[in-house]
Structures are given as structure tokens and as C-alpha cells.
Amino acid sequence: MRKGKGFSGMNRREFLKFGLVGTTSALLAGNTVAEAIGQYASSEPFAFPKPVYRTLGRTGMKITVVSFGAMLTPEAEVIRTAFEHGVNYVDTARKYMDGKNEGIVAKALKGRRDKVHVATKTLPTSRSKGDIIRDVETSLRTLETDYVDIIQLHNLTGKERIFIPETREALVRLREQGKVRFFGVTTHKNQPEVLNALVDDPDRFFDTALVAYNFKSDNDTKEAIARAAQAKIGIIAMKTQAGGYATDALGPISPHQAALKWVLRNTNITTTIPGMRDMAELREDIAVMGMPFEYADERILQRYSAAVEPYYCHFCGKCEKTCPKGVEISTINRSLMYAEGYKSHGLALSTYREIPVSASASACLDCAACVARCVNGLDIETKMRRARKVLA
Amino acid sequence: MLRKLTHNSSPGAQGISLWKYGFFSVIVLCTLCASAAVCAEESSIEKVLPAPRCAEGWIMEEKVALYSKDTLFERINGEAELYFPYGFEVLASARYANRENPQVAVEADVYRMGSLLDAFGIYANYRRADNGALKIGAEGFVSPSQLLFYQDRYFVKLQASGALSVEEEVFLSCARAVSQNLPSNLSQPKELVYFMLPAVVQRSERYIAQSLLGYAFFRKGLIADAILEGEPLKVFMVPEESVNAARKAFDQYHGYLKASGQEVQLTETPDMTFISAVDPLYKNVYIEHSGRYLIGAVNLKTTSSGKQLVEQLRKRLPGQ
Questions:
Q1: ipTM for the complex?
Q2: By CA distance, what is B283's nearest residue in A?
Q3: What domains does chain A contain, in order, with CATH numbers?
Q4: Tell me: domain B191-316, CATH 3.40.1000.20, correct?
Q5: Nearest CA in chain A to B208
Q6: How far A313 CA lies from chain B's nearest CA (Å)?
């Protein structure tokens, strides 16, 4: 594992590595720790759990609560193993690996297409009727199937794309031809706006939404998800582990299962699609099916949140409005994150150098005390002091 | 800086002879050049993208956008996670619109990865064995809608936008313009030489930066398709940091096979340690531990049929 992995861009394996050492061991004692350690050792015997299903909104599809995000999986055999043990929903995209990922899914689907629901996505740039039809037909060829269960518009950042007539016309035509069964959208940004637009759409055109949702999600997102689920829009959760800093401290206990269980505690979520690169990740994720969210999980997430809180800047920039000197606090925090989280001093310095001196952490020296405030309680004065030391 | 040293001689400096000035200047210049090189490496990726045009009639719109690890999602969505194990550092992105039809553009993305091997690894995720190799950078390929190549630790993706295709010459012109701005190292990773074996399918090699074969204990490695007696299989190599680390991975795999209740035959002689087994995912496998490497073949017709191929690969590895 390389050093210097990413925060919001951090993958789940790194999340496992986050320093919960000394916290989780205090949380869980004796055999539980041993069991947990054993659980993550991929060479240990493992019994796949009985699949647990929920219904995906008005599609009526009954899908496993832990499904397969295929995006990161180079080997079809790992996906196939999941299918063999009951996972019945797989998510890919035309864009991933320029379609090669759909080819990997195709290999895993051989001989079991009728047992697995397949979701893919049009290219994020596709808008016109021709684009959408071309994308879907290319996906069908690559997936070696006659139909996909859900075709999703990829990466909506606002409500506009929900209402493009040409896009809808193409989707309807594809459904009439039997090439797609249901329509969905995916979104990372402005999620409440996108979800609310799906509900407020008089045609209720889209059936599902793939959203980023985790224990760090804000209330607006939770409420929008609840509203969409109430309207029978099927909700699929991604980015379930929230991200965090990579550290050199290895904890034997995984906060990922706790994070996944936290998401599934919300019954408005039908399924999760964690990306699984290997058998160890598959075992870890699939084991969550049927597990309740317990006190220990809550403590793990609390400890995890507390551990990242001193570092966890949301980069919302709201604090900058409270700084009389116009210091670019969020960029400085991002530079610090590169230095301390990613351990990439070069990247940290190059980012920091982009800030004008008048808006750098040095500008703070003109103030006797820091008046800038973070809505999430981040200690800005300490962070700026730290930036001067690490980056000046 | 040189002019300042030459013309603004302070009284205290007057006694310094001209050759000392020259010597001092050279030292200063060397230091500055070295620092500048490092700074350029770290901070000027946006300058890699040619401006104002990448090909005749294809003009850069707005300015170069930069994406870091925490913003890469904004550019490539969830696919961003694919890049992180390959040491992704920064992405510079620009759109070159066609002067006559601005709806049509070439979108140019230049990714700085951790190393040459990482750049190859991410490139190979997109390459298909049937893509003809293009002589651009270390290697590339072109299709009607895109051109991809890697050079040094950079991975470059040129994509048609607003049209299904762009003339190949436009892609080539843009690719050459970007290539000229990248470090001049056009070599491929040395590890690819190990796979130059008659049975290996050319240009099927991949570098997997995390969990080779879908097993976390094979932390990373190279894998390629091969054909043996008409049967397709895969041959792979896991480079570890030490003999002990390689042995540990080997033992973990052995433990995994045993725990899976599969047929496993472990052979240890003073010269060689290997497993012939039936793997739950890959049917018949043969895998050796040799020094700091694990070398193996999967999807074999019989457990012993890959032995010769693995031996050929082993002999090409350094120190074997």
C-alpha cells in the first residue's frame, strides 16, 4: 500500500488502516478482537452469510442489501464469487475503464444473467437521444446481454439533466425496445436538489437514485433520501465509508463494517454498492448482511469521527467569510491534508504556493487572536499555526 | 541574478576575483536550476497542456483545470478510486474546441501518477490486447473517439467530445504536443521485459497495484494472458520487498487454499518451493516462491502444465 492516499478520495482499504489503534481495543475486548482480526485475514475459513434482501422502490426488484460495485474490480472471478453466494445486483458504468469494466462484469455474469440485476450508466457527457442510445447499445454489446435492469444517467450535479426531453425520449425508446427496464440517476453533488427534483417531477420519470451516503452525511441529504424513498424511488448508497486520513498506524478492527451497517440501519436505503477489489474486501462487506448495528459499531464510528475531526475539513469555505484578512483557509487546510494525510509534501507545497501571500497562513500573524469560525468546530487558529510550521 | 552579481558589486565584493564570481555564479545557477527542476516537476503540470492550441484549429477554452485527490471525483466521478492505488497525484485537464465547430472538442487529461510503472498500470487498465500499439510516449493506442498513452509517470487521455469521432491526425497532433512537454523518458517499465515469452499474448500485460488476482495477500504484481497448447491461461509475478515478505504471501495463499478445502500439494526442496493446487477462483494453479518473488500461472489445464512457463518467467527475473 502506497503512502499518501486520499481523504474523500481514499479507498476503503485505507479506511481500514486508519488509526483506531488503542481505541477499538479499548472498545472491544478479548475474543471479540481475536474474532475480528480473524475475520479480516483472508486466508481464514469463512462462511458466507445468508443473503438479505430489500425491495428497490417501485421497481419491485428484490436485491441484496450488500451489492457489488464493480468499478474497481480487475478480476471477474471475485464478482462471480459474490454472485455464487447470493449477491444479485451489480453496478458498473460505460465510463469505467472505458467500458472494460463492463467486459469484466460480462465475464462474471456468464451463465447467471437471469439471477443477477445489472445496472450501468451512460457516459456523463451524453445528453442527446443519439448519445444515450449509442451508450446503451454499446453497454449491451460489452455486457453481452440483451437488456440492463437499470440504466442510470451518470453524475448529475443539479436538477437540469433530469428534465432534458431528448434524454427522456431516448430512454423511453430503449425501454420500449426491451433494452432497459428502469431508469435511474447517480449523484455526488447537490444531492438534495437532485433527489427533490426526482420527487417533484410530475412525470416521476426516474425510478432509482444512486447517492453518496454515510455517517458523515448532512441532514439535508438524509431528509431528501427519506422523501425520495417515500415517493417509491429506489435508493442505492455509495461512498458508504466517508473517507478519512491514511496513517501508518494499523488497527485490527475495521470501521468499514460499522459504517456499512450504519448506512443499512436506514431502511430508506435499499442497498449499498461497496467497491470490492479482492476476496478479503468481499468477505468483509458481504458479512454485514444480517448483522445489526450495535453499540460497538456506534462507538467505533464515534471514535473514528473523533479521530478524524481535528483533520476533517469539509472544504466548504464558510469559515473564509468570517476571516477579516481573507485568508484562504480551506486551501490551506487542503495543503495541510496533503502534507499530513497523504504524506505528500511536494503536493502540499505546490498547493500552498498557489495561494497569494496576503491570503496565506502568514497573514494570520497580523491578528492578535483568530476570529474565523468553522461551522464544524475545526480549530482554525491551530490549523493555521500548524500550516505555518509545516508549509512556510 | 547573474547580472545583479556582475554589475552591483558592493565595496566588499570588489576584492573578489572574476573567476570567483564566475564559480560562485555557476554554483548559484546550478542550485537554482536544480530547485527549479524540482519545483517545475511539482507545480507546473498545467504547462504540459499546450496553449493556445493543441492542433491547428483546435483552441484551448478557458484555462487548464487542476484536480487533486479530493477533487478528482468531480472530473471522473467514482472512477477516481481506480487511480489512487497507482499513486495518483494530480490531473491537469483542458478542452480544445474546434474553431469552426466549437461544439466539437478534444478533452485532454494528463494524470501524474506515482511512477512509470504506475502510469503503465493505469494505462493498461484501458488498453485491450487488440488495440494496435501507437508510437507515442512509451506506448499508446488510438480509436475514433480517443487516444491514450503514457510517458514517464504521466498518463494521457485525449477524448472526443461533442462528436463520436475526431480525425486521427488531430489526436496525433495533440498527443505529440503534449508528449513534447513531458519528461523525455520514453522507456517502458523494465518489468515488462520479464513477460517477453513466446506463450505470452503480446500487450496483454497489466500491472495491478492492489490485490493481484483478487487476493489481498498478493499485494501487487504483473499479470499477462498466455496460450499454452491452445489453452488460455494467465501468468503472473508478485514482487515483494524481501524474501521473507514473499514467503509470507506464499504461506498466506497456501493457508487460504487449505482453508478453502481445495486440493493442495506443497513441495519444498532445497532448490525450490512451489504449490500445485486447485484454486477456488482459478481452477488449476501452479505457483513458486523464488527469492523475493512469487511466480505463478492460473487457469491451467492441469496443475503441472504451467511449470515450464513459470520457469521461463523466473529465469528472466533479476537475481534468479
A1: 0.70
A2: A77
A3: 12-306 (3.20.20.100), 318-391 (no CATH)
A4: yes
A5: A74
A6: 11
